[in-house]
Amino acid sequence: FFPSFAYLKLIEAELPISIPVVIQESRMEESARQRFIDAFKQGKNHIGMAVMGGIFGEGIDLPGEQLIGVYVISLGLPPFDNYHQHLAQAMQDKFGDGYQYTYTYPAVRKLIQAAGRLIRSPQDKGIIELIDPRIRHAEIQHLLPRWWFKK
Questions:
Q1: What is the distance in angstroms between the CA of the first residue and the CA of the last residue of the chain?
Q2: Is residue 79 exposed (0-12), middle (13-18) or buried (19+ Cβ within 10 Å)?
Q3: CA–CA distance, 117 with 58 (Å, rounded to integer)
Q4: What is the Cα–Cα distance from 81 to 136, expressed in whole angstroms?
Q5: What is the mean pLDDT of each run of 10 residues along the chain (151 residues)?
Q6: Which of 11, 48, 68, 95 sits at 20 to 30 Å (Cα–Cα) from 25?
Q7: Cβ of 75: how many Cβ atoms within 10 Å?
Q8: Tell me, what's the pLDDT at 150?
């Protein structure tokens, strides 16, 4: 899972051609969405690339060995643009912790949803890799399930 389509496209351009990959596209038709999901049901030897918080970040179920690992490439913070900065200030004024409400909590929610594609029932197992050093920060780790981290 990637934080944006732009980031996904950067990595896609670097993949060896020999690796079978299914890729989420922006504004996918229903038939293309179904082909993406069906690819996981038909075999094990491919990679899926999707965007956090997108159509494949929640609400799909790939039980058993249909999905054996999830790599979350970034924390997926919302952009630091005028809208979000204004929202952070409004949240700060009203509740305090404006940064947390505007950036941290939405990013952690998307991260948990992405990882949740792997573990949907007690029978499911696999690897969740969180690839962003910011996930090691205490203010992020205390928001994540403890069992995600090796002892």
A1: 25
A2: exposed
A3: 7
A4: 25
A5: 92 84 91 90 82 85 84 90 96 94 93 85 84 90 83 56
A6: 68
A7: 21
A8: 67
Give the burial string for 41-53 (b: 16+ CB within 10 Å, else e): eeeeeeebbbbbb
Cα–Cα distance for residue pair 96/149, rounded to 1 Å: 29
Q: What is the phi-psi region of residue 50: left when phi exceeds 0, alpha when psi lies from -120 to 50, beta otherwise?
A: beta
Q: Half-sphere exposure (CA, 13 Å, Cβ side) for 12? A: 18
Angstrom distance (rounded) from CA 148 to CA 143: 11
Catalogue the E-assigned strands of 50-138: 69-72, 127-130
C-alpha closest to that of 113 among 151, 70, 147, 68: 70
- Give the chain's length: 151
Exposure of 100 by Cβ count < 10 A (0-12 exposed, 13-18 middle, 19+ buried)?
middle
User: Rounded CA gap, 71 and 12, in Å?
Assistant: 14
Residue with tokens 């700060």: 92
